[in-house]
TrEMBL record:
Belongs to the CbxX/CfxQ family. Keywords: ATP-binding, Coiled coil, Nucleotide-binding, Signal. Transmembrane segments: none annotated. The keyword Lyase does not apply. It comes from the Eukaryota. Residues 1-17 form the signal peptide. This is ATPase family associated with various cellular activities AAA. Residues 54-63 have a biased composition (Low complexity). InterPro entries: AAA+_ATPase (IPR003593), AAA_lid_6 (IPR041627), ATPase_AAA_core (IPR003959), CbxX/CfxQ_RuBisCO_ESX (IPR050773). Residues 92-122 form a coiled coil. It comes from Nitzschia inconspicua. Residues 195-334 form the AAA+ ATPase domain.
Length: 440
């Protein structure tokens, strides 16, 4: 018992002798700065034990409310819920939107299916009606439709207003016949389709292209193929703009005006300029091509111009050629036909041409046809205007200046166009200088 106590005291003494030195050496090696020694300066200096350490200071509050104490940003949402740029879309809203879209798709599919079912039922009824209808069922006469719809009246006006142009009138009557028979078939229930009514009028100036276009518009309106039947005349200046972005609005505006009728593009070949790749006319042509394809039920496009130039234009724009189903060529008038046109114009203006004046006018027309810039009926119209002016001058000098018959003139004097009035025009051509004859 005593031996054990002695051994215990010896061990305790040895530990107290060596322990401070070992601790000091390790502390000195690992913590050269006394302030860094977690055991304080007691073991460095060998003095008394240090006082109790002060309580650790509380950590400073992070500057950002979302900043956590570990130095990383919080995962909490930091945006403004009222800001539309950061507003969250809740799952409930997304589910509601998805349900709405599915409901719309289901309703649209049901509508299409119902429309197809109605179409099938209608077709079956039509087939049954056609099978049960006897072949000898009366459909009415062509004359009844021609007069009832007013088509014959328009054709009669075309005959009265246009002298000659037999091929043109024949072609117009063929188109009218197609429309009449198509309407008769529709009345009985046959399948019908709107024919291609886009047209191309080729010929020299003054051959009646605009007049025929007006008559065709009225015929289409009478037959129900056109809502209004009016004709809108357009040129390049009406369709093509001067700068980028200007062409499309101008072209669409003219198309809007012509909807329900006929759009007549005079001298259409000017829309395409092969020498200039940046020409804006190509944009106008593309719009016209699209409208001719998609709006053919409500708009008829008619192109007019010289035949050779129109052929060249179609070679550049083959899509335009394929969309036009009616090509009508207007031949030049003969001298006799132009004399007849002069008589029609005089009758419309309530003038009387003397019998001996017609041969003089024919000689004038024959001489004028040999000069440049001859324009068929337009030249006749200009000649008639000058003849009316010559008649007025002659009547004024006779009764106002010379005072014949006390200044009283008769109805015949106010309506008469004499050979002398036309002779003045012929003399201007025969006696004028070569470079001035075209202005006579």
């Amino acid at each position: 018992m005593k031996l054990s106590a002695a051994v215990s005291l010896l061990c305790l003494a040895s530990a107290s002798a060596f322990a401070p030195q070992c601790l000091v050496s390790r502390s000195t090696k690992l913590y050269s700065d006394p302030n860094q020694n977690p055991f304080g300066s007691f073991y460095n200096s060998g003095g008394a034990p240090p006082a109790a350490p002060a309580a650790p200071a509380a950590p400073a509050a992070p500057a950002d409310a979302n900043q956590n104490v570990f130095g990383t940003k919080s995962l909490d949402f930091g945006g403004n819920e009222n800001d539309p740029n950061f507003k969250t879309i809740r799952l409930r809203d997304r589910l509601n939107e998805a349900d709405t879209e599915r409901r719309k798709e289901a309703e649209e599919a049901e509508r299409r299916e119902r429309a197809a079912e109605i179409a099938r039922e209608e077709r079956l009824r039509k087939i049954a009606y056609m099978n049960e209808m006897p072949d000898h069922t009366p459909a009415g006469t062509v004359d009844e439709f021609m007069f009832k719809e007013g088509v014959q009246d328009q054709l009669d006006k075309l005959d009265q207003e246009l002298v000659g142009l037999i091929p043109v009138k024949k072609r117009v009557k063929e188109i009218a016949a197609l429309l009449v028979l198509d309407k008769m078939r529709r009345k009985l229930g046959f399948e019908t389709a709107v024919p291609s009514l886009h047209m191309c009028f080729t010929g020299a100036p003054g051959t009646g292209k605009t007049t025929v276009a007006v008559r065709m518009g009225q015929i289409l309106a009478k037959m129900g193929y056109s809502r209004q039947g009016h004709v809108v005349l357009a040129t390049r200046d009406d369709l093509v703009g001067q700068y980028v972005g200007h062409t499309a609005p101008k072209t669409k505006e003219m198309i809007k005006k012509a909807m329900g009728g006929v759009l007549l593009v005079d001298e259409a070949y000017y829309l395409y300029n092969a020498a200039n790749d940046r020409d804006y006319g190509q944009e106008s042509i593309e719009i016209l091509l699209n409208v001719m394809e998609t709006q053919q039920d409500d708009l008829v496009v008619a192109l007019a111009g010289y035949k050779d130039r129109m052929d060249k234009f179609f070679s550049y724009i083959p899509g335009m050629m394929s969309r036009i189903g009616n090509h009508i060529d207007f031949p030049n008038y003969s001298a006799d036909e132009l004399v007849q046109i002069a008589g029609v114009m005089a009758h419309q203006l309530e003038y009387d041409i003397d019998a001996d004046a017609f041969p003089v006018f024919k000689r004038y027309i024959e001489a004028r046809m040999e000069l440049p810039y001859f324009s068929n009926a337009r030249t006749v119209r200009n000649a008639m205007d000058r003849a009316r002016m010559n008649s007025a001058i002659r009547t004024f000098e006779k009764y106002a200046i010379r005072g014949e018959n006390g200044g009283l003139c008769s109805v015949h004097d106010l309506k008469a166009i004499t050979a002398h009035d036309f002779q003045i025009l012929l003399d201007d051509i025969e006696n004028a200088d070569a470079d001035k004859r075209i202005f006579a």
